[in-house]
Every structure is written in C-alpha cells, then in structure tokens.
Design brief:
There is one protein chain. By secondary structure, the protein is mainly β. It has helices at residues 2-17, 37-41, 55-58, 342-345; strands spanning 71-75, 77-85, 95-100, 105-111, 118-142, 154-178, 183-207, 215-241, 244-251, 255-274, 277-291, 299-308, 311-320, 323-329, 336-338, 354-358, 361-373, 376-385, 407-419, 422-440, 458-475. It has one domain: Outer membrane protein transport protein (OMPP1/FadL/TodX) (Porin), CATH 2.40.160. The protein contains 4 helices and 21 strands.
Length: 480
Amino acid sequence: MMAILFRKLAIAAYMILLIPDLANSQDSHYATQQFGSRSTLMGGATVGYARDNSSIFYNPGSLSFVDSNSITLTANMYQMEHFRMENPTGAGEHLIHSSVGSVPLMVGGMLGQGKNRFKIGYGVISPTNFSFNSTTRTEGIFPVVNELESPGNEEFIGQSTKRSQLNEVVGILGFGYKLNQNWGIGLANMAMGRSQNFSQNSYARFYLNDSKNTLSTYSNGRELQFFHLRYGIKLGVCYRNKGFSAGFAFMPPTIGIAGSGSVASDVLGTNLWFENARQDVVANDRQQKLAIQYRSSFMVSAGLNWNRGRSSFGLAAQFHGRKPEYLVFDPAVSGFALPAKMYEQLGGRRFLQLKDGARPVFNFSFAYEYSLFRNLNLIASFATNQTSYDTGLDSWQGLKTQISTWDLYHVRMGLTVKQGHSQLSLGLLYGFGNDPSRSVQGEFNVTDENQLLNPAPSVTKAGYYSVGLLLGYSFLLFDI
C-alpha cells in the first residue's frame, strides 16, 4: 500500500517539474531559494553537513561524507506571492502585484562508491526566477499646472507600468575528498547564466483650464534586455565526529566570460512646459550588441549540525560582501532629442546607463529535526534573508532594475518520509517582509507637471508576503 502511494506521489512530483516557471524569488536577495528537499525545509542550515548531493551548493567540503550514489530529482512549489506599495503616485492609488506558482528545479547526482575517499557531485539549479508585472493607473481632478497659467485643478489621466523578468541558471560540478574519517575538503565549479528583460513605461494626459482647453500629453518608455555568462568556484571544508559536524565555505567574486545586451528609450510630449514655454518634445534612442559586465561579491558561510537522541539541530550563517556601484552597460551618446536640451533634462548619457550595486548582507538560519519514526522526520526552521539593495541607487537618474528592497524572514515546517530508495518531502512555507521607507523613482507625480520629464524620488511604504507548498521527491535511479 505504501509503495503504491509513493508511486502516485512520484508521478505528481514529476508533473510539477514540467510546470513552467511563473514567478517567485526576489531580485535583491541571496537566500530566497534553497536546494534539495530536506535542505529547503532546514532553511539552508546544512552548511555543516547536508546528507545528500545538495552539498555541492552548500558546502562541497561535506561531499566526501555523502555515501549515496544516485541521481535525484527535486522540485519546490510556491503557491502565492503578494507585494503592495502604498500611494507611489501621490494620488491615493496603490501598486499591487500578486503571482501564483513557482517551480525552482534541481537535477543532480553523485558518482563514487560509498566508502571511496573521492566523490563527484553534479547538478543544475535555478537560484533566481524573479517575475514582476504591475500597473498603476490614476485619474481624477488634480492641481497639476501652475495656478497663474491654469486656474483651478486639471482633469488628469495617468498610468505607469513596470515589468521585470530575471532568471539565472547554474550548472555545478563538485569534487570532494575525505582526508581522514573526520576531515573532508572540496570545491564546486559553477557556470552561471543570467538573463533579464526589463521595461518601464508611463504616460500622462491632462487638460489646461484655458480658453482652448489645451490638451497636454506625455509618454516615457524604456526597456532593456541582456544575457551574461560567468564562472564561479566555491571552496569548502567539513569536520565530522560521530553526531557532530562543522563546515566552512568560501566563494570569491565570479569571473565574467561573455555577455551582450540592448537598450531602447522613447520619450514624447505635446504642449509640455519646458524651458519656460509650452512646446512639443521628443527623444529616442536604441542601441544593440552592448558589452555587458555583471559582478558579484565574495561569500563566506559557516555552519554546525549535531544530533542528540531523536533530535537534530542545524545552525548556519552567511555573509556576502559589498558590491561597489558599477555600470552593467554604458551606451554611447547616439540618440536624438528635440529640443536639444531635452536630452540633458532626461539625464544625458545616464538616461540609458544601467547601474548595479549591493550592500553587505548577513543572514542566518536555524533548524530543528525530530525523528518521529524510523522513516518519518519532522522539520521546522527559521531563516533571515536581508536585501542587498544599495540605497545609493535611489538618486540614480539612469536605469536600475531592482524592485525588492525589503528584508525577508522565512518560516518553514514539514516532514520527510522514506520508503525504500525513495524520499518524499512535504512542507508549508511562509515568508514576509516590509520596507517602511521605500524610495520610488520614475513614477509620475500628479501634483507637479515639472516632475513628468525628470521625476524626483518619492518615499512610500512597501510590504511583501508569500505562502507556499513544498513537494519534493528524490529517487535513487541507479547505483554506480
């Protein structure tokens, strides 16, 4: 009976692997996703010892202590994410984004006999799958134009749309070597492909209270896309003695290999107030095959795992260093603008430059596991997930694609069930966070016409939560 149930759940887990990725994760967090079913429920508190081939991600030094030789498939499913930004336009309209469904995937395995000192692990993971799509629309009567020119409030319609799709896929080949019965070392080679599509568009329409009931219009659209390939290496060491394990891992900044991207912008205004007069304005530019550089900071992690009777504990900490601000791409000045000063008003060359950066981040996680029966374990964990968003980017006039600026906290509870060569993991996942002083740039300000061409940053509140279901299935396809 139990074997039949496991076969049915295996089919369900396999079907989940086929579901396309819809939306999940965050674009400025390092620890939103975990890999390996048990390690996910443990909140990543497996740096000391992961017990399976997810060691290639957490600590390749513990790879040599993993005895199972297998190929595994694991899947995680997040049900719902919800994001809310209060009144970014100043007109009482809130920006809300909700998404359902996510399938971060790990396919991996190991080579090497159980007691062999040398082990090889391999895997493909997707640490970042971020999708954001939101639209804010405002219409009503607002004081948009100077009272001397247009007495009273003006009829106004405006809309702002922001879309971002960020994906990263990592292929890992790890090696572990057991120095003796207590010490193991290892390294993991990582090939990382990162791609992003981003667009931001806004428009505004309003009538002047003059004799002609003059219509003024404005639209601003910018979009970019890029792909970048880089190489990284993670070094690890692990100590094990009976039921106690300790691990340490270090990853230096990655090395860029190749990349290419494009960027485009189109700005159009009619009867706008510019240079002390109402006039039509236009600016347009598109550049392709731009050289891309994407940088990452160094990472250090350490962890402890220990057993006491039926209970197991895990504690891990991770530190990512600062990533100084830099230009991901730097287009040449080749667009046109009328009037000529229009280009300077938009920010000049900075208007199409993409800037990135990250502040230092420290995260920790704690997990508790209890063996209820021989084949059934209960797991609960708590983990922090601080944002790496650099507030120095708030005043940047050019392009920046980061959306999530809040620190996150994750609570996970679930169980693992073993049956023969199969292991099933079920869990509930909850994440939450907020930013009480979220800086917003690029949203039109309906109370000041002068802010249309070059909007100043505004400060608002932002909140986030996610509720999810984890379903993981690991199957020993064959022994080596």
